[in-house]
């Protein structure tokens, strides 16, 4: 009697059991979903003496024990144990709640492993002899319930004992464990019967008596090969039929290996992380079909469980929640909550098992937080159909005046106790349902926390659709827009033509409507900013900024160009009727054409340093004067060429001055080759080329003494000083030209005006 009292007090300590709420019409048994791994042909309809799993537990079992290659014989004809089927049970469980063996996760006994229909540890039979048939559970709590299979929530294995659990299949006719005297009526068989209820009337079973601790409501099976995608693998131009076919014919070389000269394919392996995902485990070593990979990734493990559930149409656990027994009635685990710390609560989790959980954001949160617990389901206390812990609501740190949200711990606490302003929740808008032109986009609008607060006010429901424009209209392939600016602010650059987005109604949002379409090649042409030369720089940002590359013979040092070689500099004037860099095509072709023509005529390869249309001074003073200068107009080109040695430098001077007539003749052709075609109306007729100025320069620190580079003599300007003398020369020449022009013009008019002062 005393012993019995002790047992009872273990199960119901301190008598602090809240009375079952009168409004809750929950069943006495718990409905759960459990899964099994089986072999085709097995009778799976009456499970007994087996271990079952929740979805995540099944995935863990399969990936760590069944499909993993390491440790298995390569030539095995099937998966380990012949497993090719998964079974889903909807199952009612009710253990004898007054048994002291029912002390795991509130409603279960300890888990016992079975092999071949018998207990792996024969001593476990004593529990069934003592307390009758019990459903056991093994829980894997986050974050490392199994170091080989991390998951952010608790998952489970279950054990269901059948008849004669101490004897393996085929030997169950003799020597079976019997119940302790008195546990079942004397006139009944005393042999341990197994927990599967075999009754005619099924309404209130299981009842938790020996021989009736679980009852199968529904059995479904699925082929493992199709659930995990073996049948989507390629077996040489066709889909693999099953595991055996895949094993010998898979075409994916990543998955195959050779053993004793025979090729096999592995479903999954992770040799470096066989025993743990921690420590020395190297993630790159994992190989297998996509379903199994990511075993050390909690998110993938969550997905894998969801995929198993989905293979059977998804989990229904939530729909049994309000009819399953309340967890708050179970001591000692669940009935002593600490409201200000938010701990020692229990909720029925996604697997349907009562598990310890915490409430975040309370006044005196437990520190440290219970490491292996998850936050309680938010409707634990106030679910209208299953209110629990009525007198033990958590004490929230927040005043709970804001909107209902789970985004912070203190806000979440308010949801648990129903003290916040609940409003409609809307997700971000989805993408437009039209590729191009008018379409509609949608968003999900939902009423959150309905279990606690009931339905939302329909009159304030936000819209879930709106007009939108597609962003995958086609770019025109033969029409192009404006030319871009030159991408190089100091010379040799590229400009391209913008694309045109084509919509049925002129693209009100512009190019955005083509954003997602592949871009066709854009026409491009060379460009050379006119009159913007920065010394000897040949590359700088278009929007202005420091030099990034220098012309031939110069080196970039701290953003400025230093002469490091022998260079010859020259300025040419190119003259022709209608020659104007205002013509963009002509300007585009001019520099490459000039370089080609000069190379052809003089065999000197140059970099263009400066390109100007008309002298800057002239444009200021005498636009009228220039117009009067017949039809000819001029372009001025400053170039640099590199000399290898003194002799070469001396020769450059001659070469760069020679054959200019020939060059003038070839220039129009060269221009045409570089895009200055009749289509672009920029052909030139007669062209004249003249050399305005030439200069030889030595590496900085040396001076040209007429036939070689040497130490600077007396009097020359200090090395590296700013404006080159040859450029001053250019300007002088230009000014002279200008004066000539002005004189020519004034004389054209002075004859008529007879103005003596101008003549003078
Ligand atoms: C549970 O009880 C409530 C009232 O107590 C009743 O309205 C409801 O139909 C019952 N549900 C079930 C499934 O019996
Ligand atoms: C029955 O079990 C006992 C002890 O467990 C053993 O000694 C005996 O040989 C067994 N009998 C048979 C028929 O297996
Ligand atoms: C439950 O277990 C207790 C103690 O083990 C036992 O006294 C009681 O009869 C059992 N209840 C049922 C329904 O079998
Ligand atoms: C081969 O298998 C690996 C691992 O699952 C996968 O990453 C890869 O994409 C597969 N290759 C082909 C061609 O399917
Ligand atoms: C797209 O919608 C706008 C405004 O709703 C309308 O003016 C336009 O004609 C529509 N375009 C097409 C192609 O239907
Ligand atoms: C949009 O909301 C209406 C009710 O307001 C609903 O019937 C419809 O299914 C919703 N559409 C989508 C795509 O969510
Ligand atoms: C092209 O250039 C013209 C003239 O500068 C301008 O009016 C037009 O808006 C530009 N077009 C685009 C598409 O930028
Ligand atoms: C066209 O030019 C713009 C501006 O120079 C540049 O940003 C873009 O990358 C270029 N596109 C192509 C395809 O060259
Ligand atoms: C100028 O551009 C052409 C072609 O774009 C390239 O081959 C050449 O090297 C460039 N010259 C310099 C000095 O950047
Ligand atoms: C480029 O040429 C223009 C006109 O010929 C002249 O004004 C300018 O100073 C020159 N710039 C350089 C860096 O040579
Ligand atoms: C042109 O110059 C190169 C070296 O720059 C030289 O090898 C070649 O012989 C020259 N050709 C002519 C025709 O002078
Ligand atoms: C224009 O330039 C060409 C080529 O240099 C030359 O032959 C012609 O005489 C020039 N005409 C005038 C009016 O200067």
Automatic annotation (TrEMBL):
Recorded hits in InterPro entries, A to Z, give:
ADAMTS_ADAMTS-like (IPR050439), Growth_fac_rcpt_cys_sf (IPR009030), TSP1_rpt (IPR000884), TSP1_rpt_sf (IPR036383)
- Keyword Transcription listed? The answer is no
Which UniProt keywords are listed?
Membrane, Secreted, Signal, Transmembrane, Transmembrane helix
So which residues are the signal peptide here? 1-19
Q: Where in the cell is it found?
A: Secreted
Q: What is its main location?
A: secreted
Q: Where are the transmembrane segments?
A: 726-747
Q: Which PANTHER family did the record assign?
A: ADAMTS A DISINTEGRIN AND METALLOPROTEASE WITH THROMBOSPONDIN MOTIFS PROTEASE
The identity of this protein, by name, is Uncharacterized protein
